[in-house]
Write a structure and sequence with these properties.
six-stranded mixed sheet; elongated; Uridine Diphospho-n-acetylenolpyruvylglucosamine Reductase, domain 3; homodimer; alpha/beta; 342 residues; 11 strands; Rossmann fold; 2 domains
């Protein structure tokens, strides 16, 4: 058992120990190889840091679920870390898609609740580069823009006090397994994560191996590079869209946004589209129901020379748009509590 | 036989008749459904326009190839259009990949030569939305950035006098077949186009149907939308990169480019990367050998505070980069005739 394997060095290079050693860290551990390797490596990188393990038992497969839980509890004993277990309820009779979404939501709600309770600054998960490639391919197949093409973000704010970090996003699953083998650490098989969709699991187990073998050796690397470039491009465009919005915004309150279209004169249509995405983001209006067609519709309305009042354009979720002289007026729903905020 | 089917209306909406009716048009016709539908529809949209058909016989499958040629010649007789036939030679013993690339190159060289000879302003091909989706997926699998993600361009300059246009890029293969059925026009099967790679043919015949059926119904539409958004984003970023280069460029001659790095201060790294792509484009330096790693290397060199002369960095194809005080100096190859210009 070597004392500081490459895996730990890479983890420390991606997420330096001094960033988390002094604050509480909550590690989401399913019992599968990725999260087991993560908590192990974090513990070994800093034996004094305040690490808590959170395990969520979805309750979908009672026996296997309990065995996973016992395994994680045993691991925590051996590592000397506290262990918080959450239990989900399987809502009966729902479609697989909504069941998985509900499971994912329940798991993140549990993680955030525990993080607040134990005072953890970071929630960390074991998502690897392979998970990232699967996510990117899944997004491509079901339809995405550049933001989705970038895949999972390395850091995401969950609440004012807590951020989600995915420190293994640059490491491959093979490196995880090699590390576990090197330190002689066992793990549970979690081939079908309860909160992972059936499509996603098939992408992992059937589609990517098929693509790698018959179509494009190195496809995982190709997807990761594309995701990186898309993320870089999207960040650049988003910052320009925010700056454009700053210049064009006249009125903003929870129910109403007014844009001065003269400030958009000569602006690239894609940037105008992204400016409206920034409006939705700022208003916390759900974007899931908006598609390329609707963003184009708004850009069209904003860039038209037509200064006469136009008919009210209805957008998803009771949001409407109208051009009044040089202004584009967006009216939001009475209360900001659409189905996506339930 | 209806007089002006939807297909012709859509074609005329995408590529208005008055843009091409007064100038020569060369239609690349393989004998397959897409190109047969295209030449038919163009002829019917304007019976007086100067249309020439170009057919390239790759010589790979002597019997089928000759039958294709005879079919196209017969079609031209019935439509009253001139027909130019080119013949390729199958270079023996090469790998499929290089053979296909050579075939594609020979076909485009033939098309351009005929266009110049008959005085055609446009070369048009029958690529459809389905071809576009296949191209985008192929690029994703083998590795691409945003430019490649946008797929085939609708218009591409082939020479100062001739542009390539793909007017069917917004129409699906199903619409092509429906049109041919409606007008009672026969066509040849060209399932394995000689200048289409084996991987590409499998993407069409096996992978996309599998994805549509088992993974993501509507995947073709999803790929096309992603390609559109990527193209919009890439055009926006490219125009900004060109503007940045205008501000930062100090010296440009065929062998040497000097950039004033002070003009890049505070600029987003991705934009700086794209500025270097613009340098390569402007110098006509081949970009195929440059990867994300090399572009990052250049951006790093340009954005560093380090003002001392740095060691010469060797880039592919005998191009080198060096930082000298505030300047970044790129030195190109002695003669601009790398392997990719052969």
């Amino acid at each position: 058992m070597s004392s500081n394997p490459v895996f730990e060095q890479k983890l420390a290079a991606t997420w330096p120990t001094d960033r988390w050693a002094e604050v509480g860290v909550l590690v989401a551990v399913s019992g599968g190889p990725d999260s087991v390797a993560l908590v192990h490596a974090l513990r070994r990188l800093n034996p004094q840091a305040s690490l808590t393990v959170a395990h969520f038992n979805h309750g979908w497969r009672p026996e296997a679920g309990l065995a996973d839980q016992r395994f994680v509890e045993g691991l925590c004993d051996s590592l000397g870390t506290a262990c918080q277990v959450g239990k989900g309820e399987s809502p009966p009779g729902e479609s697989p898609g909504s069941r998985e979404a509900a499971a994912r939501e329940a798991r993140y709600a549990f993680l955030l609740e525990v993080a607040h309770r134990v005072g953890a600054r970071y929630v960390v998960t074991g998502h690897t580069a392979d998970d990232q490639a699967e996510t990117i391919l899944h997004h491509i197949l079901r339809g995405t823009g550049l933001a989705g093409l970038a895949g999972m973000r390395r850091v995401r704010v969950l609440s004012p006090a807590v951020s989600l970090v995915r420190p293994l996003l640059g490491l491959g699953r093979a490196e995880v397994l090699e590390y576990l083998h090197a330190i002689g650490q066992d793990f549970r098989q979690d081939e079908t994560n309860a909160d992972t969709s059936l499509t996603r699991n098939r992408i992992r187990r059937e589609l990517l191996p098929l693509l790698e073998r018959d179509y494009a050796p190195g496809v995982v690397e190709a997807l990761l590079r594309l995701g990186n470039v898309a993320g870089d491009a999207q960040r650049l465009i988003e910052s320009q869209a925010e700056a454009l919005l700053d210049r064009a915004l006249v009125v903003r309150d929870p129910r109403r946004v007014e844009i001065d279209c003269r400030a958009l004169d000569g602006t690239d249509r894609h940037l105008v589209r992204e400016m409206f995405v920034a409006v939705w983001r700022g208003q916390n209006w759900p974007r899931q129901a908006m598609g390329l067609h609707e963003w184009n519709q708004l850009a069209e309305l904003a860039l038209t020379e037509e200064a006469n009042p136009t008919p009210l354009q209805q957008l998803p979720l009771a949001i409407s748009a109208r051009r009044q002289e040089a202004r584009l007026v967006l009216s939001g729903p009475a209360r900001n509590c659409g189905p996506f905020h339930a």
